Amino acid sequence: MHLITWCSRKQRSVSRSTAEAEFRSIADAASDVLWLQAILQDMHISLDTVPVIWSDNTSAVAMAANSVMHAKTKHVDLDLFFVREKVTSQHMQVRYVPAASQVAYALTKPISVALFQEFHHQLCVRKLSKVEEAREILELRNS
């Protein structure tokens, strides 16, 4: 099972570095992961694997794994401890994904046509005409 959440919203605070901003996003995603796990647990659905949060910022990924405090982390202490605790207890993982493989960029960044088509395919986006054709076929089968 692959659960994916993607959203865009303003952050609650001003970040002083890119790593801090990215790490706050990881903390928000970790919170969403825990919420989804609780819902699935209430429905008696267990996960086969540990959830993974993917980030294209190597500094933020390193902050999640490294228990050493850095100057970059002094403004995200609560988020830092929250995410690290979940990573060290193996409730989730934070991994690096290169920006060129970040599928969500098809929705947010100017990218090449070839890369857009690849991401388009990976997101399973279909033309509206194809969706309407499939719906018509289903309606004919059901009548």
Automatic annotation (TrEMBL):
This is Uncharacterized protein. The lineage of its organism: Eukaryota, Viridiplantae, Streptophyta, Embryophyta, Tracheophyta. It comes from the Eukaryota.
